[in-house]
Structure formats: structure tokens, C-alpha cells
Amino acid sequence: MKGATAEKDASMQKQKEMIASHFTELARVKDTGKKVVYTFVPGNLTELINHFGMLPVLPEINALQSGMRGKSAEYISIAEKAGHSEDVCTYVKTDIGMLKAGNIGPTGEPLPKPDLLLLSYTGCFTFLKWFELLREEYDCPVIMLHVPYQGEGEITPEMRSYVADQIREVVIPQFEKVSGVKYNEERMREQMRLSVRAEDDLVWVLNSARAKPSPIDSWFGGVYYIGPMFTSFRGTQDAVDYYTMLREEVQERMDAKLGPVTPDGQAKEEKYRLVVEGPPNWTSFREFWRMFADEGAVIVASSYTKVGGLYDRGFRHNPDDPIGSMADYCMGCYTNLNFPQRTEMLERYINEFQADGFLINSVKSCNSFSAGQLLILRELEKRTGRPGGFIESDLVDPRYFSAANIKNRLESYFQMIEAKRKGAKS
Amino acid sequence: MNVCVGIDLGSTTTKAIVLDEKGRIVGRGITNSRSNYDVAAQVAKEEAFTNVRFSMLSRALDEANVLGKDLPQFEIALRRAFDLEGYLGQLDRLELHCREDLAQGRYGDLTLALSGALSTIIQRLRKDAPKLFAPGQKARSDFFRDIAGAGFIEAASELARAGGPPFDRIVGLFDRSIIPVENEQEQRTFTQRLLAACKRAAQLLNGDSLQVSKIVARVADTPLNPVRLVGTGYGRARLPFPKDQIRSEILCHGLGAHLMFPKTATVLDIGGQDTKAIQVDPIGVVTSFQMNDRCAAGCGRYLGYIADEMNLGLHELGPLAMESKHRVKINSTCTVFAGAEFRDRLSAGEAREDILAGLHRAIILRAMALLARSGGVKDEFTFTGGVAKNQAAVNALRELVKENYGEVTLNIAPDSIFTGALGAATFALRDIEAGAPSSGDQRLAAAGAIRDSHNHQHQGGCNGDHCGS
Question: Which residues in A lie closer than 8 A to residue B375 (C-beta atoms)?
Fold first, then answer.
């Protein structure tokens, strides 16, 4: 157990170093002359950005980190003073507020201005508006990659070539222009080989939650595990090393039949295995996690850890077809799936991970997630016969996290699972 | 007798239900939740236990048939005498605390005069007490502080006018002593108090008072053993129970509603602070529920604000709304905006009853949305919580349920306030049946002799067992 804890610290330490070095590089762009691209997590073209020696900045991640650092209330208030209504997505307002407060990043240094805004997933309409606001602030070129919604539940060859053509004809030439670097397909294949290695290990880690007890928490813990993959590191040796390390640690925990590590140390008995739909709340992240951990509830699968790609459902970047697989990637992120696809995915998680129930955290900010969640809930109840729970909060606006009420709902939900179990036995 | 106890610590009232081993309701208690949940739980529990003994006594007297047709009259007299005994005990303690206060030396030259005034007042309160608790006399309040306080102030005022110590100095004695009095145990055991009460009540009898006293003593001494307690409600975390004896109020309400109306499929509970829509299976297990996490619009408190705004009692709103001829359409159910909404409509020339009818419909519309989210309204449909007592709200609900879900049986129990406590008590009983260890707390387990320190009055309608399973 001691060994496992030490190993865990190793992967976490590695991730911290990777992030720190990324922010150091961002702070040094004035000296290095590296170009900076602001972009989003869903449908991110990380390999491509790295290919041109550019550095990505992810405003969503900045917003969630501001939430975790207790800064979002202040940033949101600055944005609201600037005229953004209470109903606007709180990621947007946190980002705008942070920008107006000097755009100070997590290291305490100002983030560099973008040389390019890359909108590579347009399934979220708010993303469009968000970058429209940033364009006003920075006066830099914007690339808008139009990504068709999987309304019919599939990616057709036409959809694929539509996106691939845009990458080839719009994104790459613009990147070349801004960076002064030429696109090299052979080098891109190399990057993608590294992507695939890390992707394989991430999938292994996520699937480890099929074990009983699950060695990981796939939501609260999961958000750390997806970090390098969904942000700036996919397609790098660093990411490969991180996931190798993580996989070994999880394997050790599994061998020792240990549950996940929680904010208060080693998880106690695994009493409830849950599938969760929706993002977590970031402003009370640890408090929220504790509400589960204290009751012995472990999240064995979550949709949120798929916002940056459905690797566990088989998607891989493809060294033999880099641009085609980038197109598939942009169209395949979770919020670009239609309702039947989302429902089916959650149903499979519930069954494959032997969950006792599923829970929806409906966040006020994100309609890409929240619209239709109750329909999904009803459908899943019907298909799986397992109890569904529904709680409401927000991403980074602390005003919408009512701890007493949420705790009350969760306790009721866990007791409902317990009562159903007893009912089933009698 | 072994019993199971359920306690529901709500935001406004605390309720207790006592079940016997067969799951029959044998006692109920209710008190205001006050700022001290521990005391509230204790008072409700003791009230319920007192209730249990009175039910047992009724049965025993009935079986012995010593009183014949005088039994109902005797029961009432005994209960009032019991309450009187409690009141007199508290008066003794009030005097004691006031004297301790006087002995602190803070009153200087006034000490002697205040001491005399105190004697006069307490004497007068004692003298007046039997009238206050006479059978048929309507209780002014359920609480010692209100009943004794009113008499104390009246007497203090008279004494001051007649040249005694200043009014505020006399009343200051009461103010400083009342809280310790409320939070203290009575010196006498339950049996002693009941026997004293029996002596008083027996004076009204023509029958065999000796035999009655014997039966009363036997019942009072029958050990009452709370084998398990389960707590629920907002204050449940404050209950001194281990975690496995605490259940969420959603589960308790679901089960309670099922027990009251076994065909219940959907439950709506509109309480002071939240609205719950609950679906239960045929054995009363909750299968899904919805509550609002981000906003409390449309809860019972909304009507409370409106009542304050109109300077009316909460219970007066429903009847007034029922007089409406042309309901006003109201959209906002924000509790804080309720007052503004109301004033705006008044200034637009709308009638009060029409606005009220609109407000009632608005909160029920909000509940309908929650019901829809939880899976809709299924047959049968049970409505609980404080708002279920409001006929205008019930009518709006009936109408909207019919519009949206067709004909559905709507159940409302007159004692639906005990729904959560009933569910909790039943969980306690089921835990015992499933082999959970007995875990009644020692103070209560030891108390075949329960010390009723709070002179809590009996509340009407709580001694039947018509909502047992």
C-alpha cells in the first residue's frame, strides 16, 4: 500500500512538472518567439499545434483552474460588471474576468496573448461566441473549423471529407503562415504513433474500473487522468511516459485490491459503484468528492472524461491517416453525439462496469450537456432498471453550489440504492 | 412494551412517532423545532411517549370497565390534570431560578421588594392554573413560556402600578430564568406525575377511584422500551444517533406515504423549505425523486411571505383564495419576489382573493414541473407537507393533475405532518426485524418512568392509529 501511494505521487508529480514546464514556456514566448494558439478541449488539434512549434492555451482549463483556486467568483463578477448577464456560461465569464484582471495564469505570471484563435469544435455554440469576444480583445486571426453534429448518430464519408478538407485547406495553411513552419506528414505520423501509445494506456486505466473494487475513481480522479491527454501533451514522449507510469500505479493498486485514493486518503469499502453523466463542480471539488467518498461511492465510469475523445469506444489517432483521424476526432467528442448515442454509451457503462446506479450532475452553464438529460435519465432507468439520481450545480459559479442541498440529495440517493437492494433480496 | 421511534426534525416542527412491535402507531408528539434541535427531539419524543401511555391507559380502563360511560370524560380530565401537574412543576422551577437570580446581589435595595413581588406572582399563577387547564378550556398556547409569561406580565404590571417595584425589573426576573426552566428535567417521575394527575381527575368521578388509581399505576409502571430510534429531516445530523439510524427524509416520506395510503405511486411534499416529488414502488421503496438544488422558488415559505405581506395568518390564505372569481395569472414563483408581485397586482386594481388564487396556482405549477421531472403523476397520488392543509393549493393541484394526467386518486391525510416520522419509525422497526441490534438510548430505555420536563401539551388528533399500515 505504501508503495502504491508513492507510485501514485510519481505520476502526479510527473503531470505537475509537465504543466509547470508548459507554463514556463508560455511565460518565455517573448524570448523564444514561439507562437501561441488559444483553443478548446473538445476536438483539440494538439498534435497539429505542437507540429508547428506553437503553444496551446485552453481557456476552459484556465476557467476550471480558476474555479479550483477560488478565483472564479471574482472573475465572474468582473465579467458581469462588464455587461455579461447572469445566464451566460460561467466558463466564459471566468475567462473574460481573468483576462480583464490581467490574464494571470496559475503560475502567477501573465499568459501571453494569442497569435491565433483556433475554434476546432463548433458543436458548442457558446464556443463561437466566446472566441468572438476574444477576437475583439486580441485582434488576431481566427480559424473556425466547422464540425457537423452527429445528428444521425454516425460520421458519414461526406462529413469526414468536409472536416478533413477544412483541416488541409484552411487550418494547415494558416498554421504555416503564423508559425513559419512547413507541414510534414512523416513527422506528423511519428507524433500520432506516440498519441496512440498514450491513448492505449489511458483506455487501460479507464477500464481498470471494471475491477471490484475499482482501483480508480473515474470522475473525480478521472479528471486528473485525462489531463495530459486532453490538453497540450498528446503526441509527445512526455504523455507516453506519464501514462506508462500511471498504468503501472493503477496495476499495483489493482493487484493489492485497493480502491481509489480520495481527498482523505485511501478509500474505504466500495459500497456504491456509479456511472456519472455531466461535468463535476470545480469550486467545491474536494467537498463534492468527499460527499461521495464518505459514503463509499465510487464513480466507475463517466461521460465527462470523454469530452476530449471516445478512446475507450475504440477511437485512435491514425498514423496512416493523420488528417482523416483528426477529422474523426473533432466529430467524435462526447458532446457531439446525439441523444441515442449518449444514452447507449451510458447504458453500456452501467452494464459493463456493473454499476449500482447512475447519477446526473446537471450544470447550469452547459446546455451542450444539460439539454435532454432528464430524457436520458428516464430512458436509462427503463433500460437498466437501476436507480438514477439527479443533482444540480454549476461548473465554476460558487453561487450555484448549495452544499447542504446537494449532500441531502446524494445521501437520499445512496439510501435509495440501498433500499432497492434490500427490496430486491426480499 | 418494546417500541420503535421515528423522529423527523423539520425546519419548523419536530415530530415523533412511536410504533409497537406489530407496527401500530401507539404515540405521536410534535413540538416547534426552536434553535435547539436536541431539545426539540427530546420534547417530541417525550410527548410521543406520554401519548403512548395515555393510549395504553385508555385501553386498560376500557377493558376493566370501571368507569363505564364516564371513561371519555375521565380521559380528558386526566390528560388536562397531567398537563396541569407539569405546569405546576415548571412554576416551582421558575420560582427557584428567580430566587437564585435574586440571591446574586445584583438588585441592591430592590431585592426585598422583588422577592415579595415574586411570591405574590407565583402564588397567583398557582391559584389560576387549574382554571387554565380545566377540561374544555381552550389552551392559549402549547408552551410554558407563553402561558406563564402572560400571567407573570399581567401580575407584574398590576404590582408596579400599585407602588411595587418597577415593571421591567420584575419581568427581568422571568426573562433571565425562563430558558433554564425550559431546558430542565422535571424532578418527579412520569408515574409520580401521572398519579398526582389521577388524584385530581378522580375528584370528578363517582366511580371506583381506588381501582382506577391501581390501573393508572400499573400502566405508568409498564416498562416502555425503545428498542430502536431512527431520525430524519433537516436536523437529522444533530440527532445523537449513529449514522445507520439516520435516514433521508425522501426515503422516509416515500415509505410514510405508502403506509398511510398503500396504493401510493407518486408523492408530492411541499414543505417550508423545499418541494419533493417522489416515486415509490408497490412496497414503498423510493425509485426516483426530484428536488430543486439551485433555487427554492415555489416552496411553502412563498405563501409565508405572502401572508406576512398581507398581514394575515398562513391558515387564512387558502380560504381567502377560495373566494376568487377571476384568477390572476402569475408567473414568478421566486419567494423573495412574491411580495413585489403581490403589491404590483394590487396597485393594478386586482382583488386580493384573485391575486391569491393566482399565487396558489403558481406554486402548484412549479410543483407540477418537479413532478414531471421525477416521472409524472401516477395513480395513486399522495400530497403531504404543510401546504397540503391549504384547500386552495389542493384545488389547484387537483385541477392541474387532471389536466395533465387525467383522473388520478389524490390522497391527503389529515395528519400528513407525521409522514416522515412514520417512515422513520417504520425503518426502525424493519431494522429490528432484519436483525439490527437494539439501540434505544439509555435515558429512554430506563424510562418506563419518563421525565417530562417540558410540560408539553397534548395536540389534538394525535392519539388514533388510523394511519397505521
Answer: 378
Distance from CA of A393 to the nearest CA of B (A): 7
A411 contacts chain B (CB < 8 A):
yes
Q: Measured between CB atoms, which of A374, A400, A412 is closest to B251?
A: A412
Q: How confident is the model over A154-184, as pLDDT tens digits?
A: 999 999 999 999 999 999 999 999 999 999 9
CATH for the stretch A10-183: 3.40.50.11890
Instruction: Say which residue, B386 or B256, is predicted with more confidence.
Output: B256
Q: Decide: A327 and A359 in contact? Cβ < 8 Å.
A: no
- Please check whether residue A358 is in contact with residue A276, taking contact to mean a CB–CB distance below 8 angstroms: yes
Does the distance separating the beta carbons of B283 and A392 come in below 8 Å?
Answer: no
Across chain B, what does the average pLDDT equal? 84
- Min distance A357 CA to chain B CA atoms (Å): 11
Please state which of the four CATH numbers 3.30.420.40, 3.30.300.10, 1.10.10.10, 3.40.50.880 is assigned to the domain occupying B262-412.
Answer: 3.30.420.40
Spatial contact of A369 and A399, defined as CB atoms under 8 Å apart: no
Q: Which residues contact A177 (CB under 8 A, 6 or more apart)?
A: none
pLDDT-derived band at B74, boundaries 50, 70, 90: confident
Across the interface, do B288 and A381 touch by the CB < 8 Å criterion? yes
Q: Do A408 and B292 touch (CB under 8 A)?
A: no
- pLDDT, tens digit, 9 for 90 and up, residues A86-97: 889 999 999 999
Residue A392: its H or E element: strand A388-393
Q: Would you call A412 and B274 a contact, using CB atoms and an 8 Å cutoff?
A: no
Give the domain ranges of chain B. 80-182, 262-412
Please answer yes or no on whether B294 and A412 come within 8 Å at the CB atom.
Answer: no
Query: Which of B283, B293, B434 minimises the CB distance to A409?
Result: B293
Which of A348, A288, A360 lies closest to A312 in space, CA to CA?
A: A348
Mean pLDDT for B160-173 is 94
Angle subtended by helix axes B190-202 and B37-64, to nearest 10: 50
Rounded Cα distance between A359 and A376, Å, is: 11
Residue B464 has a pLDDT of 30
Residue A70 pLDDT greater than 60, yes or no? yes
What is the rounded CA–CA span in Å between residue B198 and residue B75? 10
> Is A405 in Cβ contact with B274 (below 8 Å)?
yes
Q: At what angle do helices A90-100 and A125-138 cross, to 10 degrees?
A: 10
CB neighbour list of residue B221: distance below 8 Å, 6 or more residues apart = B191, B448, B449
Alpha-carbon gap: A80 to the closest alpha carbon of chain B (Å) = 19
Whether residue B11 has pLDDT greater than 80? no
A406 CB neighbours in chain B (<8 A) are 293
